[in-house]
Amino acid sequence: MASLAEQLAAIADTARAALDATDAAREEAYRLQREVTRAAASAIRAVHRRELPQAELLLADCRRLCDSMNSASRAAPAVYWTGFVLDAQKEHAEAALLLAVIAGRDVPTPADLDIEPAPWLSGLAEAGGELRRYVLDELRHGAFDRAQALVDTLGEVYDLLVGFDYPDAITYGLKRRLDMVRGVFERTLSDVTTTVRESELKAALDRRDGR
Questions:
Q1: Domain limits of the chain?
Q2: Is the C-alpha dihedral spanning 114, 152, 42, 176 positive or negative?
Q3: What b-and-e string marks burial along 92-124, b requiring 16 or more CB atoms within 10 Å of the CB?
Q4: Residue ranges of the alpha helices (H) in the chain?
Q5: Distance in angstroms (rounded) separating the CA atoms of residues 151 and 168
Q6: Are the C-beta atoms of 29 and 79 separated by less than 8 Å?
Q7: pTM listed for this prediction
Q8: Tens digits of per-residue pLDDT, 62-83?
Q9: Model pLDDT for residues 33-62, shown as the tens digit of each residue
């Protein structure tokens, strides 16, 4: 029979090996998380520049990095369920959902993106914030019909998200983001309504004056 010291040493070796594996997974996942976040931000910027083919390429790179991050962190659940992994999944979802809405495609599901439902919902909320910027650009370009359609989409996003009445510990801070979406929707709707009415009034005055 092994001595107590030998038994403890064997157990310690097993624990150390497990912790070494978890630490290695954390380091790799943390590195990839930063790259996912950068790739997602670059894809969103390309969408706002109206460079959709480039946005597609950047999003594909984001997906590859997110898949690698998920693979590395799922080997160690203590790492996978930490905030930085889920936050990177949220960034991936935000970019993917924004591009889908702007391009008029079916929106990807959490399963399509291989991410958890809560980060997907938060990503949808933050994509709503990016929609406001896009709508304001459409107004500046005089694309009023497109702006109104996107405001309707933003309203649909809010209506969907408001139905998820769960504790923040489950929804990954969705309630706070929902307040943001509501404010963004109300301001954007007001901006679109005011701009369209002003344009209609100007057109009516021009017609009256024969211009």
A1: 1-92, 116-211
A2: negative
A3: bbbbbbbbbbbeeeebbebeebebbebbbbbbb
A4: 4-48, 52-74, 77-80, 83-103, 110-113, 117-140, 144-161, 168-171, 174-208
A5: 27
A6: yes
A7: 0.90
A8: 999 999 999 999 989 989 998 8
A9: 999 999 999 999 999 999 999 999 999 999
| Cβ proximity of 158 and 129 under 8 Å | no
Q: How many CB atoms lie under 10 A from the CB of residue 144? A: 15
Contacts with 81 (C-beta within 8 Å, 6 or more apart), sequence order:
none
Name the CATH code of domain 116-211 (choices 1.20.58.2140, 3.65.10.10, 1.10.3720.10, 3.30.413.10).
1.20.58.2140
In contact, 153 and 101? CB cutoff 8 Å? yes
Give first-to-last CA distance, the chain, whole Å. 103
Q: To 10 degrees, the CA torsion angle through 76, 82, 84, 85?
A: 50
